[in-house]
Amino acid sequence: METATVNGAPGVLGAFGGDPRRAIQEDAITCLVCGGPFRQLNNFHLRLHGLTAEAYKERFGYNLGRPLMCGALKRLYVQRAIQVGLAATIRHRPILAQPELRRRGGIRPLALEELLTRREIRLARRTRREP
Ligand SMILES: [Zn+2]
Q1: Around ion ligand 1, which residues have CB less than 5 A away?
Q2: If 0-12 CB within 10 Å is exposed, 13-18 middle and 19+ buried, where does residue 92 land?
Q3: Architecture per CATH, 10-129
Q4: How far is the CA of 89 from the centre of ligand 1 (A)?
Q5: What residues does each domain of the chain span?
Q6: Which candidate, 113, 117, 109, places its Cα nearest to that of 23?
Q7: What spacing in Å lies between the alpha carbon of 91 and ligand 1's midpoint?
Q8: Is the dihedral of CA 64, 66, 69, 75 positive or negative?
Q9: At 29, phi and psi to the nearest 5?
């Protein structure tokens, strides 16, 4: 059984069953420090708690690539990025330039969010296999 530790704010995170992914919903993301609902957790707000976006994600177990915004806003940004062809402007891809990064891919530390998602996928596979 995998375990992950989460520091502080057990009250707010507890309201989401200890699953930080549930704090991100279609129309709001709940700040797990103060419990306030927002469209996105920007640097200004996180600074009020003495945190950076990276520190917030680490503290509550989010994947470091997770955008701190509600589902509706995330979809808007994704559509905009596709419209302007943002992916085509990415020139430096370290995983292609440094093959050892690909080899090390399996031993990086996992965030709580990824552990929870992996557990759900395993359970879904097990359930599907049963007759
Ligand atoms: Zn807050």
Answers
A1: 31, 33-34
A2: exposed
A3: Orthogonal Bundle (1.10)
A4: 34
A5: 10-129
A6: 113
A7: 35
A8: positive
A9: -115, 130
Question: How far does residue 24's CA lie from ligand 1's centre (Å)?
Answer: 14
Query: Which residue type occupies 119?
Result: R
> Residue 30 Cα, ligand 1 centroid: separation in angstroms?
8
Extract the tokens encoding 56: 């917030």
Rounded distance from Cα 123 to ligand 1 centre (Å): 33
Task: Look at the block and give the residue holding tokens 């991100």.
Answer: 24
Q: Per-residue confidence of the chain (131 residues) as pLDDT tens digits?
A: 333 444 444 589 999 999 999 999 999 999 999 999 999 999 999 999 999 999 999 999 999 999 999 999 999 999 999 999 887 887 777 777 888 877 776 567 889 999 999 999 999 999 887 66
**Whole-structure pTM value:** 0.73
Q: Give distance in angstroms: CA of 2 to centre of ligand 1.
A: 28
Q: How many other C-beta atoms are found inside a 10 Å radius of the C-beta of residue 50?
A: 8
